User: Fold these one by one.
Assistant:
Number 1:
Amino acid sequence: MREAYKLIFERSIQGHKGYDLPALDVPQMDKLIPDEYLADADLELPEIAEIDLVRHYTNLSRRNFGVDNGFYPLGSCTMKYNPKINEEMPALFNNLHPYADADTVNGALELMLNVDKMLSEITGMAKCTLSPAAGAHGELTGLMIIRKYHETREDYDRKTIIVPDAAHGTNPASASMAGFKIKEIKSAPDGGVDLDALRAAVGPDTAGLMLTNPSTLGLFERNIKEVAQIVHDAGGLLYYDGANLNAVMGVVRPGDMGFDVLHMNLHKTFSTPHGGGGPGSGPVAVKAELIPYLPTPVVFENECCGGVKLDYDRPLSIGRVKNFYGNFGVIVKAYAYLLSLGRGVREASQNAVLNANYIRVKLKDVYDIPYDRICMHEFVCAPTKEMIEKGVVTNDIAKALIDRGYHPPTVHFPLIVHEAIMIEPTETESRETLDEFIQAMRDIAKDAIENPDKVHAAPVTTPVGRPDDVGAAKNPIVKF
Amino acid sequence: MIPTDRKYTREHEWILIEDGIAKIGITDHAQAELGDIVYVELPEVGDSFACGDAIATVESVKAASGIYTVVAGEVVEVNEELADAPEKINEDAYETFIVAVKVSEITESELISAEEYEDFIAQEA
């Protein structure tokens, strides 16, 4: 097992091939393309027989780890199980052409409108766009809406977005992409927004605040009403990063908390595939006053003559953010999920929170829990002082989990916790699975103190032990 | 251990001011926390920054961390060496400046002495 497989290029043997062409029985046309347009040398493509090619990629694919293989508690990413019925549904639309006239594909548009309404209901907002192709794309879209809102009001000085230091890294990145300046504020000792720091940060330059609730520490922001008040009084808008929406569906709504714009990740919260690039989908929902700025086209009920229409005539719109109508297949899968669960979305969130708290309580005597109170759908723990004295850090614990058959949790995030390990079990895991994971974490904690060398050696069950991550970051070799 | 010839911030930066020029770097404690530094994003000479602006970014295998300046002014020098050898900061954080700024304003309230900084990191641990 410990043998790393060769690259496809290293398997190349001269003369091996996976095709057999008949002899040329027409005159050869050598000079069809002028020399100046031809490459000087042959392409260095691997030469390999079909069976060796199939084995190469099949063996690689068997090394993959996904939520269908095992427990995948990757905090802040909601790697929840993707029900297989979701995967069947997009095939119903296989014959749709994206250029088809809206009148001939009204069923598909009605589906989009239904998803819009359901997501708006869950989040307490007025209207969604389903166009953004992923979460960060949703953030960018939402921030462009905020910018357009201020510009339309001729409030040109609002160029700063406030971001707490516990925020997802995408938040400041998206705000910067949308042309804003970033002002970072410190978290309060309880992990929430520091209200005094926020009061000091807002002003006539404030365009908005980006916030995740529950926060990246997995804690519900208890002062959210005050936070909203401070930002709104200063003339800014509130942006909700929906990455942690899985904690609160059907329980509390961002719209009711005072948020004006938000994005969701269908590939997190609404059970569409997440790994391997998804593709994702990051719908953006807004309050009524921001509807005019939504990207085109916007799906509306056709009030005059029934059915559903695509509205392109939106003078205040930020414009198009994605070709066609977003990742439609992903939207269909999320719709299947929403219809399957119905009012069960609330129970899904409740179980996600219960599972996270169950693990937290069962680990608190052997790991450091820096914010030890009732958590939401995820929590942050860290190696204890005793482990760190033995030289065992977060990275070692994560590697040791691989040997026990688990995908490691998110590590070194959020940045405000030293050596953070962020665990998010999601709602679908049974108590037995959670108990096995807890036992693995406890065994590693014991090894860390009694036999640290064992933890330092992990992983021993994988083809490669510890890759040179510093070398990979500094001198990446991305071609053979 | 912690050089007393300069000032520190609670953001784990050191500031050494000579002849109106502030050299800014990160502390040894900061480099140890970040781990192996793989990239430093530097400003351009001539760029101007206000107090509290992110003047540079230090990236390790764990995290990307903004350097927020407590002095305002124009960048007069950047440590070009860091482009090819960001690990210099790991090797000797106090001898490796990141950026030098011609000081036009200082947020004195943010600056602490070496002794105060030592107490501060002891408390944080």
Number 2:
Amino acid sequence: MNKNQLMKFFGFKLVRFIILMIAVAIFSFILLDLSPINPVTAYLKGAAVSESQRAILESYFGVNVPLPTKIYHWLLDLAQGNLGTSLIYRAPVIDVIIDKFSASIVLMAISWVLSGVLGFIFGVVAGKNKGSWIDKAVKVYCYAIQSAPSFWVGMLILMVFAVYLGWFPIGFGVPIGVKSTDATFMEWASRLVLPTLTLSLVGLAPIAMYTRNELVQVLSSDYVLFAKSRGEKGWDLVKNHGIRNILLPAITLQFLSFSELFGGAVLVEQVFSYPGIGQTAVAAGLQNDVPLFLGIVVFSAVFVFVGNLLADISYYLIDPRIKESEFGD
Amino acid sequence: MIKKQSDDKRQWFLYPANLRTKTFVIIILSIIVIVSIFISGYFVRDIPTSFISANQMPSLEHIFGTDWMGRDMFQRTIAGLGLSLMVGFIASAVSTLISIILGLFSSFNRFADELVAGIIDLFGSIPHILLIILVSIMFGGGVFGVIMGVGLTHWTPLARVLRSEVKEIKTKEYIHLAENLGRSKIWIATKHILPLVVSQIIVGVILMFPHAIMHEAAITFLGFGLPPHEPAIGVILSESMNYLSSGYWWLAFYPGMSLLIVVLLFDLIGENVEKLLNPETAQE
């Protein structure tokens, strides 16, 4: 693959990214603008003000400005990185998001890697021993966990490990009464274990099912039959003919799961009261903090896009077949 | 030498049955369970409170235990499931309608097809749970907000399937013939395309249902929509969060378990209906 094609690929992706972001920004802005939330009421939170003060606030928040003008200003500000001021935190939205997201990214990254690795191993073990009890156990587990609400799984884990066994604290990013900057690494890490465990246990199901089905398919193919007839068997066979074939699509699938990862983090952070981006999104939504919520929506769209982009890159750059078919002409 | 293979199917339950009958029985049983939950959930309205029997462990009298007001958790769970099923039903109806309209709209011309693909991409680019919150805020929250939030966001998988089906059907000769005969696009879409995608729609709807119910539970768990006195599953679970550290595990365990079972039942129905409708497996 030469440089020219690479430039074409990323140029295409960049254009797509910009169009998608503008669409997401406008779309979410219109949705929130149509909502019955009055910015002045949300800002005042029931505080009594006189009519003239209210009028000043209304003109400050631009209540009566027509929608196209509002959208224009919003896009202009967005392009300059100005997402407005959060009503809950009384701080610039961008700072709040960066602060909360850095707490979440650790949670999401660890559980993303863990769920990928564990899911892949489970899938390979199940697929190799198709029809055995271990295959059935993995299948039952995956079906059950995919049908279970992830927050309920989190609650069960919380009950078992934090309430009954008492191994881990029940929640919060750092102990009560300790500033987040003063917390020791262990204090902080011990509060990360259970949310990470929950997200990993939930996230490994799709990847395990996918890997299992793919491996079963590969193992019933002709070239595996041929390899068997040559005398290959056991793990060597799976390693040489199975894993190489299914690893790449599995990685791609894992990159495509960024959206579910974010959704899972929202619920799990709520259960474990972990101060991350998900909990902030819920708080912003419940307390009508429109600028913060809009910011998080746009930010999460960027996050999901990055996941899809990485999946595409892993497809185009690593798999030789697709590279040839796509860029051959 | 062909051996007769149906011997292993002989001893199934009470009388010999083939796969088709088994599938039907599974589907009908699951539907009966779900309908009975829905109907009994409708009739359980006023659950008696008695503070004498508050926070009891599960027993024969209260098989799911009781909550802090002495209400029977089994009744609350059934009522909550009924509510969730209702929300899921309305939301799926809305979603199905949207995906059918968009799927058929994509058959009109290239531009319409690109537009539909763009809308699907747009909805897929925001994490689902945030999208539901966004839409439910737009409708002002409450039960209506939750229903619309769940209903307006679950159409993407079905619409994607329909779009690709429509693309394939559009290459057929009778479509060109109908176009040359001067039939309108709407006539072709409803008379030539819609009947061919009905089976995809049915399977898509059944598989959409469990997602809708789960997301409804999640969104009410987060505190959007249903008021605390409504016994929705999400509300029950978020309430039980307060009692976790007291060790009242049954408040959270059983309602979640029932939700899981209902979702599994829907998956079961979906899979079996697909087995019947899919020509590759229907003849087994």
